[in-house]
Specification:
Layout lengths: L7 E3 L3 E6 L7 H6 L4 E5 L7 H10 L3 E5 L9 H19 L3 E5 L5 H13 L4 H11 L1 H6 L2 H9 L4
Parallel strand pairs: 2-5, 3-4, 3-5
Antiparallel strand pairs: 1-2
Helix pairs in contact: 3-4, 4-5, 4-7
Length: 157
């Protein structure tokens, strides 16, 4: 069964969608749906990251592999990686890119990064959670407790 990608307009000209890990055969369709960048939040072991990256690049889209293996108790280096990714993706969205963020299940790591991007872009917590819910309800529902605390800790002050 094909995954459903619900792009939501953010920052005036960009579009953001959230997902579980895409199937390799679905990536070609993402290009035809005007996706310009895929962000993979997958651990160092990859969880098929190399295959995803190869196919994304073959479709002439941009690919970012953010090597984050867990959603809480982040090691300092993974905190830096997520903060840098949030800045990079926000810039891409503000320049009009259509971006999909995914991790394995599309819940915690995906939600944390999306929340951080939206909050750093000026949205309130409620606005960010609402936008995430429009993109993927499962992700919004999972972004509670320690996961929301982690996301809040990544917001630039």
């Amino acid at each position: 069964m094909a995954l459903k990608y619900n792009f939501v307009k953010v920052f005036e000209s960009g579009q953001l969608a959230l997902s579980e890990r895409p199937k390799i055969k679905e990536i070609k369709k993402l290009k035809t749906d005007n996706c310009t960048r895929i962000v993979s939040l997958l651990g160092r072991r990859g969880e098929n990251a190399h295959q995803i990256g190869s196919e994304v690049k073959a479709q002439e889209m941009l690919w970012d592999w953010i090597k984050v293996g867990t959603a809480t108790d982040l090691p300092p280096m993974e905190t830096v990686l997520l903060k840098n990714a949030a800045t990079t993706i926000a810039t891409a969205l503000k320049s009009g890119e259509s971006v999909i963020i995914h991790c394995s299940a599309g819940l915690h790591r995906t939600g944390i990064l999306a929340y951080c991007i939206l909050r750093n872009g000026g949205m309130t917590s409620d606005e960010s959670l609402s936008a995430i819910g429009m993109m993927r309800e499962k992700t919004a529902s999972a972004l509670t407790g320690k996961y929301l605390e982690t996301a809040e800790s990544l917001i630039f002050t």
